[in-house]
Design brief:
2 copies of one chain form a homodimer.
Chain A lengths: L2 E6 L10 H9 L2 E4 L1 H7 L7 E3 L6 H13 L4 E5 L9 H8 L6 E5 L4 H9 E2 L5 E5 L7 H13 L3 E5 L9 H10 L7 E6 L7 E6 H5 L7 E5 L5 E3 L2 E3 L8
Parallel strand pairs in A: 1-4, 1-5, 2-3, 2-4, 6-13, 7-8
Antiparallel strand pairs in A: 8-11, 9-10, 9-11, 12-13
């Protein structure tokens, strides 16, 4: 029985990939993914059959994976970050119902929350909420409700998809909502191009974040009420030091 | 200048470790960590100087790392999962102020939310909140507030430290609070010993979870209102399929 490995490549798709993910890529003759991710790994694994579909054609890409697997070949379906966090794992499980003979394994990767936190310092030492600002598949009212709830309950907040051409003011709107219950001096961080050329990060206040433009390659972190800037790092204390 | 690499080993500390984490362990002559994690890697990297302190002595362990680094040796400070999620990264950054000559790099790992999600299926396809039920360093009122907020705003919820000997009824209490705003039939999951011998998972309803005992090696997932059980997997749809 052939198998699909839904594989998170981690940020940048090089040494932040897990050993398991690398072994999967070595093993599978067929690798399927969005063009940008394929390009990240093609050089490392040249002797593979690479298949792709454009952005937004996720369901087609999944069916392509099952069809290749039905031909008897093991398939790696790759995503950046973690396939299990806003990734392809869910759709593969849903479409998998139509292909009962194909086995599916999810191979987790480092998601942008973990990868970005490591660059900034240690913002995720305490309870946190991960929220996507993309309203492509989610009503904006739901996103608003979650932003407000997370802000009021003093979660550290990690924002995925904080901006795109069509949504250039969404981060500003999100910061406005969070500011209804949070100190404007709350320590925040922006990471960009995690694990890739041009990787960068910036620490700033919530007030400043509100008026900062970010791009679609960014992940945004909003600290909780205890988060501080320490030697240029964003750190949320857990409390061990006082124990 | 010597360097401390605060390194997440991922679940199980074998092939779910990143290539970067493995390279760090190969490179560093000194490896420091809680005994349980050290035991997981000692066999793979036998020719190292291993140092440890008991549980709860986290600050001592960090100072030990800085003192070894000041002697001129690169040090790997290891944690299971991701050092940046309820891990040692924060304390190392805090204590690092006292040792300005030692460089620190955080090497992220697969945290239990990602590792557990992969075993269950795809529960984290949409916005989620990570909450620790340990009140060792956090007032229980804060935990309650976050549980209620996350439940009301329909986040998928991932619970770390859902139980211990002293807190055997905390998961029950947490489920009770979540049930104030959520359907008793909400799809939930429990993962145990992620990436290790005896790895297992179970899918059940929120109502059933309330009366289920879990141990300290478990991570608990509570779905959002759209999460479903699909062929024995816990899946939160993102919506792609309808696009």
């Amino acid at each position: 029985m052939s198998k699909i490995y839904v594989t998170g490549l981690g940020p940048g798709a090089k040494d932040q990939m897990t050993i398991r993910a690398k072994n999967v890529l070595v093993h599978c003759p067929v690798i399927i993914g969005y063009t940008v991710y394929i390009d990240l790994i093609r050089e490392q694994f040249p002797d593979k059959q690479y298949l792709s579909t454009p952005m937004r054609k996720e369901a087609d890409r999944c069916r392509m994976a099952f069809e290749e697997a039905e031909k008897g070949q093991d398939v790696a379906m790759v995503c950046s970050g973690d396939a299990g966090v806003y990734g392809m794992a869910g759709l593969i499980c849903e479409i998998g119902k139509e292909y009962p003979d194909v086995e599916v394994e999810i191979v987790p990767g480092i998601t942008a929350a973990s990868g970005g936190a490591a660059i900034l310092g240690a913002p995720l030492m305490h309870d946190f909420a991960v929220i996507s600002l993309s309203d492509l598949l989610t009503p904006w009212e739901t996103i608003e409700k979650r932003l407000r709830a997370a802000a009021e309950a003093d979660f550290v907040i990690c924002l995925y998809n904080p901006s795109s051409r069509k949504r250039s003011d969404y981060l500003q709107k999100a910061c406005g909502m969070i500011l209804e219950s949070r100190d404007p001096k709350t320590v925040c961080g922006i990471t960009r191009n995690i694990g890739r050329d041009g990787e960068s990060c910036q620490i700033l206040t919530l007030d400043q974040l509100k008026d900062t433009k970010v791009d679609m390659f960014s992940t945004v972190f909003i600290g909780n009420s205890k988060t501080m800037e320490l030697n240029g790092r964003m750190v949320t204390p857990r409390g061990y030091k006082d124990v």
